[in-house]
UniProtKB/TrEMBL annotation:
This is Cystathionine beta-lyase MetC. Belongs to the trans-sulfuration enzymes family. GO terms for biological process: L-cysteine catabolic process to pyruvate; transsulfuration. InterPro entries: Cys/Met-Metab_PyrdxlP-dep_enz (IPR000277), Cys_b_lyase_bac (IPR006233), PyrdxlP-dep_Trfase (IPR015424), PyrdxlP-dep_Trfase_major (IPR015421), PyrdxlP-dep_Trfase_small (IPR015422). It catalyses: L,L-cystathionine + H2O = L-homocysteine + pyruvate + NH4(+). It is an enzyme of class 4 (lyase). Its EC number is 4.4.1.13. Keywords: Lyase, Pyridoxal phosphate. It comes from Paraburkholderia phenoliruptrix. The lineage of its organism: Bacteria, Pseudomonadati, Pseudomonadota, Betaproteobacteria, Burkholderiales.
């Protein structure tokens, strides 16, 4: 009796390949293993077929040629800076940068002999006044973390290119659905995949995409040298999340705009920070450059003390209290006025409530906020 042929197996999902050690066919292959970089397999820290599949998918979404994944959004930001800067260089960072990255620049890059400067988060027009002869990198975040200012991205990129300066952009809020930095001349597009790419608040990851092979090689070198490995299990979770990215993004953006408009009319609200809101000071820039809006907004209130904020948060139910954002569950976070003290170009000194809008019924969320306002 003839043995039956093994049945072929096909799947709609990418298999999870776990490995630390990579084996080789010959001594020469082993000795020359590092020539396989940046995208070949030499050791588990730089990836397996699962992480390569994710990198390829994200590069495609970014309309880019290359992508490297890192174990968190912060790791992606810091790796990009380390890949592009050396002692004696100057880096320009938006004044509205994600707090941990700003802290990394001020505390750690300075120790490496790298000068750090800041520019206004809502910078428009003449950007060259912030550039020095030794400026080698400009960091962009749009909109700004917490206060949501929108910079003039084309003006910054134009000034950077005129001076031969590299640019990196934290594009997590817009994601690839609403804006693709590489299509607009930015050298490195960075996403905290922990947020919208993953979409379910259950993983940590960051991504850096580029069209420049030499920058890609440097990023992979940083990943290998510093040991910034990514779990293939989490890579598989992000691959799964990407299947619903656009659907989630647009549904959450629609609900967020409705809540922003409701808050904008509330008598207890001083100001809503959300660039897709028509009353926002940066609405024109958002409308010019972006095709949709994110699921995060901030707002300040009129004359509340800490006790009033405590009562507001105590009445939240569908809004969980926590950091991060971008998942399917709504979140609320509080930032006291002192959080703005580090900034060189303040646009507010008021405490902020930040909301991340999930996929719950929007009318239910509005009713809950109304009850919390009391």
């Amino acid at each position: 009796m003839r043995p039956s042929h093994e049945s072929p197996f096909q799947s709609l999902t990418v298999p999870i390949t776990r490995a630390s050690t990579i084996v080789f066919d010959s001594l020469d292959d082993f000795v020359n293993r590092f020539t396989r970089q940046p995208d070949g397999f030499s050791y588990g820290v730089t990836g397996t077929p699962t992480t390569r599949a994710l990198e390829k998918e994200i590069a495609s979404l970014e309309n880019g040629a290359h992508c490297v994944v890192f174990p968190s959004g912060q790791a992606a930001l810091t790796a990009a800076a380390l890949a592009l800067l050396k002692s004696g260089d100057h880096v320009l960072v938006t004044d509205g940068a994600y707090g941990p990255f700003r802290d990394f620049c001020v505390r750690w890059l300075a120790q490496l002999g790298i000068e750090v400067g800041f520019y206004p988060a809502n910078c428009r027009g003449a950007f060259s006044e912030y550039v020095r002869p030794n400026t080698r990198l400009i960091h962009i975040e749009a909109p700004a973390s917490l206060t949501m200012e929108m910079p003039d991205i084309p003006a910054i990129v134009k000034a950077a290119r005129a001076g031969g300066i590299r640019t990196m952009m934290d594009n997590t809020w817009a994601s690839t659905v609403a804006y693709r930095p590489l299509e607009h001349g930015v050298d490195l597009s960075i996403e905290a995949a922990s947020k919208l790419f993953g979409g379910h608040s259950d993983l940590l990851m960051g991504t850096v995409s580029t069209n420049d092979f030499e920058l890609h090689r440097k990023l992979r070198d940083v990943q290998s040298t510093v040991g910034l490995s990514v779990s293939p299990d989490e890579a598989a979770l992000v691959l799964r999340g990407l299947h619903t990215l656009e659907l989630r993004y647009k549904a959450q953006a629609k609900s967020t705009l409705k809540i922003a408009e409701w808050l904008d009319e509330h008598p207890m609200v001083e100001r809503v920070h959300y660039p897709a809101l028509r009353s926002d000071q940066d609405f024109d820039l958002w409308q010019r450059d972006f095709t949709s809006a994110g699921c995060v907004l901030s707002f300040s209130t009129k004359h509340w003390d800490l006790g009033r904020y405590r009562r507001f948060f105590a009445k939240l139910n569908h809004f969980a209290i926590g950091a991060s954002w971008g998942g399917v569950h709504s979140l609320a976070a509080f930032y006291p006025g002192e959080v703005h003290d580090m900034r060189a170009y303040k646009t507010t000194e008021l405490p902020l409530i930040r909301l991340s809008i999930g996929l719950e019924d929007v009318d239910t969320l509005v009713s809950e906020l109304q009850a919390a306002f009391g």
